[in-house]
Write a structure and sequence with these properties.
Blueprint lengths: L2 E5 L2 E4 L4 E8 L6 E8 L6 E7 L5 E3 L7 E6 L4 E6 L8 E9 L7 E2 L3 E6 L1
Parallel strand pairs: 2-11
Antiparallel strand pairs: 1-3, 3-8, 4-5, 4-9, 5-6, 7-8, 9-10, 9-11
Length: 119
Amino acid sequence: QVQLVESGGGLVQAGGSLRLSCAASGRTFTNYFMGWFRQAPGKEREFVASIRWSGGSTYYADSVKGRFTISRDSARNTMYLQMNSLKPEDTAVYFCTARTVAANAYDSWGQGTQVTVSS
């Protein structure tokens, strides 16, 4: 069973930076996609970024392109989301997620970490 634990959220001023981490365990993630979603109050959960564990191909939502960078450290089984030039609209609970390459949907989720950007 895949276990995902996020860390690194917090309060930051607009224009600042944060780095989220997601420690993954329970599987060998070679054939996995891992990603970040976020959910703001009163809104649906939305895709932020994803990375194919093997090969490192990355994908981003238009709203974060050029500001956020997703990466992974295979030796540590840890995924990261470096968030720069943060905006108040980035305020949300950020969730780490994983799925196999063959799966149609993400099916493993972390508990989430709060990111709050003040104006």
